[in-house]
Each structure stands twice: as C-alpha cells, then as structure tokens.
Write a structure and sequence with these properties.
An eight-stranded antiparallel barrel has the order 2-3-4-5-6-7-8-9. It has three helices and nine strands. Helix content is 16%, strand content 39%. The protein has one domain.
C-alpha cells in the first residue's frame, strides 16, 4: 500500500511538473507552477472563476468527507476556496492546455494574511484532485459524495 501511495504521489507530481528524467529534482519551484509569460497565449487561458468541474467538497476519504472538522477538507466555490483553517479568494486563475488550473490566492486564516500560488489538477475521471504547492508538496483528495 505504501508503494502505491508513493507511486501515485510521484506520478501526480510528475504530471504537474512535466515529468523528470530521474536526474532532476522532484521538487517544483514557484516559477514551475506560475504561468509562463513567454508561452503562446493559446497555451494558457485566463479564467474569471474556478472551472465548474473543480467545484464542490473534497477530502481524504469518504469518512472524512462527513466530518466538518477534517483537516483535509477543501471546499471550492467559483470565487472562494476554503481550507481547514483558512479561506482564499482567487486573484488570478489560469488553465493550461493539459487542464491544470493555476491559482494565485489571497489567503486569510488564524489572524494571518498571505498570497500563494497553487496548482489544481483533476484525475481523468474527475473524482480525485491533486493540489501542488511551490515547495513541491502536494495533496490528493477525493470528491465528496453530494
């Protein structure tokens, strides 16, 4: 089971970073998750809100989906993203041709305010969501039943 989770995590990270040859670092940096201004305009699309297929409640398991105090809970609305102890307003949203949605967030929570770029990617069946951070960490959540 641990091998499967490691493989899934590595594959998810590789899909967010374009893959590695084994000689490269698996960590992504801020530049790798920010839209590249030098790319063709057709490669990325600026969005006014989170795409419909991303909207809803996401969590680690079906059991934690039922727990409002779950620390993996993620609620995505068109113009608000709520994590366990913080909320964010997307300030910039872009989608690339591979379906990865890049979001610059204005966060607030626990008396703090900050900005952060995160990458969101859905599985092919739309039932798993991978969220990648600039430091290379990622989390995979399942879509909660409605």
């Amino acid at each position: 089971m641990v091998r499967i989770m490691i493989a899934v995590s590595a594959l998810a990270l590789a899909s967010c970073t374009g893959g590695t040859t084994g000689n490269e670092s698996d960590a992504i940096d801020e530049a790798s998750i920010e839209p590249d201004a030098s790319t063709d305009a057709a490669a990325t699309e600026s969005l006014d809100a989170m795409p419909d297929e991303y909207l809803g409640r996401w969590d680690f398991t079906e059991e934690t989906c039922a727990d409002p105090a779950s620390d993996m809970r993620l609620d995505i609305a068109a113009n608000e993203i709520r994590y366990y102890e913080s909320a964010a307003v997307p300030t910039t949203i872009t989608a690339d041709e591979d379906g990865i949605v890049m979001v610059e967030h204005s966060f607030s929570g626990e008396g703090e305010e900050w900005t952060e770029m995160l990458a969101y990617e859905l599985s092919e069946d739309g039932e798993r969501l991978t969220v990648s951070q600039a430091d290379g960490s990622l989390s995979i959540r399942m879509r909660c039943p409605t």
